[in-house]
Specification:
Elements lengths: L8 E5 L9 H18 L3 E4 L13 H10 L5 E8 L5 H15 L3 E6 L6 H7 L6 H15 L24 E5 L2 H10 L3 E3 L8 H11 L14 E9 L3 H19 L11 H10 L9 H6 L1 E4 L1 H15 L3 E5 L5 H15 L5
Parallel strand pairs: 1-2, 1-9, 2-3, 3-4, 4-5, 5-6, 6-7, 7-8, 7-9
Length: 347
Amino acid sequence: MSPNARIPLSILDLAPVSAGSSAVDALRDSTLLAQEAERLGYHRFWMAEHHGSVTFASSATSVLLAHIASHTESIRVGSGGVMLPNHAPLMVAEHYGTLATLYGDRIDLGLGRAPGTDPVTAAALQRGSGDLRDFATDVADLVTLLGDREAPGRDGLRVRALPGEGTHVPLWMLGSSLGGAQVAAVLGLPFSFASHFAPDAIEQAFEVYRSGFSAEAHTAQISEPHVMAGVNVICAPTTEEATHLATTARAMRTRIMSGRSAPLDPPGEDMLQDLRGASPLRMPQRSSALETSFTAIGTPEEVVTQLDTLVDRYDLDELIVTTYTWDPQLRRRSYELLADAWGLTPR
């Protein structure tokens, strides 16, 4: 596939904290990454909401995005995503409406249904149950709150988001199951699948979304289905170095799935062996073939070949990639190598 024919490429960042560094360092590095992403020509820079984590520093997502937006000029900045059961729709509309008021039409609002944390922290945060019907209602209310005052659907909604009303912040549905796909389809919103960590249901979810999509819903923001998928990426000058650097991400996943979260480990197979032997792992059973297919590791050319295959197989409209390395400079280098190989146009 020629560079000119390739779909938009974006970045998902969780402000990862590396061993030996602090949250201050992580937030500084995320800011530097956003500026580099803008320079390189990436389409979006999204940050995801996580709570109670020593691995990620992205709990106050809207605050972080305000900081990122103030240090960039043109790249789209947004949430990937806001975990809506933790928040009242009015507050989300006010926060992201304020961002749009400050920074114009480059703010995205991605919405998820998961708690984004452990059960105890979720209970302390939780405003709603995450029930699919309640979630869909909250999303519809957000569309209305960020729309025009006289728009359809406002009947019965007695509150206003000020600032926010009339900003028409674009909404994205995020999901790793059929539930998010159904909500995105019924409400006529773009859909981003979390295939970078839970790829199993991607084919079914895209089928549900595409077949059930309604452009006639009063909440619809697009005229036809639009899908994006997440991919883990490590680019390096050689396959051997990329494989070595990827041990950090493998260790992170092992730690999270086994309930032993920690800052990102330096790379090394010895570290992985020590981690595996520390205690029995409580990891969910997933399709190893699918999981591998949404992890692209190697030289820029090798990674691009793997991404092109995913784009063709799932008929993707956009890709969003995430990279975990212990050294933030090598994380930025990975994104730079990918941008060049993908054919992005520098800003």
